[in-house]
Amino acid sequence: MNTGMCQYRTHVCIPAESSLSAPPREKCISPGISETTMRPSDGSGPSRELSFMKACFRNHYSRPQVEPPFRFTRREWGFFPFGGKMMFRHMAFLKKEDIFRFFRESVPMHAYYSVAYYGDPSLQPMGEKFRTWMGADLVFDLDADHLPDADSMTYPEQLAKVKDEVDGLLRDFILDDLGFPEEHTHLHFSGGRGYHIHVRDPAVLELDSRDRRQIVDYITGRNIDFDVLFPKKTVEVNPRFGSSKMVRNFRDRNYGGWVSKIYAGKDALIRDLMDLEDRRKRVKRLLRVSSDKGLGIGERKCESIIDDLFYKGKKNSAIRMLDEDKFTITSKNTMDNDFLRLCTAYSSINLKGETDEPVTTDIKRLIRCPGSLHGKTGLKVMEVDRDRLDRFDPLRDAVALPSDPVKVRLPDEFEMDMGGRSWKLDAGDAEVPRYLAYFLVARRLAIIS
Questions:
Q1: How confident is the model at residue 150 (pLDDT cuts 50, 70, 90)?
Q2: Does residue 3 register a pLDDT over 80?
Q3: DSSP assignment, residue 407?
Q4: Catalytic (active-site) positions
């Protein structure tokens, strides 16, 4: 990468799998062409496909396109070049013009900046830089990778589902429960399969990883104490014989916070189960939810819950729980808790990295730069107005490459909406707009013919 003309400070190459908070490498959604197809047969230079991809980005970045983030001079920057597996990072820019010139001359395939602010963003190694840490934005990353059944969805289906998740995270958690002001909240489409929510409220700037972990735990419903939300109490069963039992005091649906969310999760869970045809499929659905959320609820417990919901009593509990808006599940406290955990799982948010260290807790993380292009789709990383989220279509609104024709060759049929048009291509040669050609080539669904 060119390092001779822009007024920016030092950089170093970091392997893509580095532990220094480098963004994870993404898997191809539906590879139809092997990786070797993207390389020249004689090893003498870049393939036609790689040259085509870089030329598309070079033309795009020939004019200022990137939107420098708030306090950009205090942020570390990192880049992946075309054809490279090493990240260039520990970079800092002093002026907006330097950023534009860098993109124009170096043409990165992926571009990132740090959520953190530093006294000297160019310092290395990371330990030295972190001594100058001045705080960090609070960032939430929702990606289709962490959706249940993501592997069985098409790319447009993944985008639609993750948009529903991000709307719920914004509305129900960030703005409502956590109370962050909307003016300090920024929503970005990642250019790939998800969204980033940036919170720049001064109240979160200096939160450490442990404090941010508590926010993640709340949003994901981890470690909820049901005895606090729904306290247990003793009720008399037969006063004559002095018998009693322990029951839960289920607060009203409108209580707020996780109480209201568990009610909503109960409704969604029951309706989902009612759509299934038989007992076995219902048990498998509960097992899948348990597995996806790491609940550890086994098959026998799932069978017991399904039986209590649908197959015991004159009127099944599932219908009664919807009609009467109550929790009338089992007589066993253990089953009671397991059902509440499943209801919680239906209302929790699938944050990226939920099983690892989440993006939200990493106070040194690098995140994609708005205005840049995503190297594996050609779509633009862009801010999205929350009021327009329901109408936002990434495959239409984030298309940034031009529509001049490009000839490609596909090994298989392809069908998808993009650029405001429906595309249905047969295997073989085809002429498509440049934005679609880039998408197909980058996903290894086609080669340049």
A1: confident
A2: no
A3: E
A4: 141, 143, 356
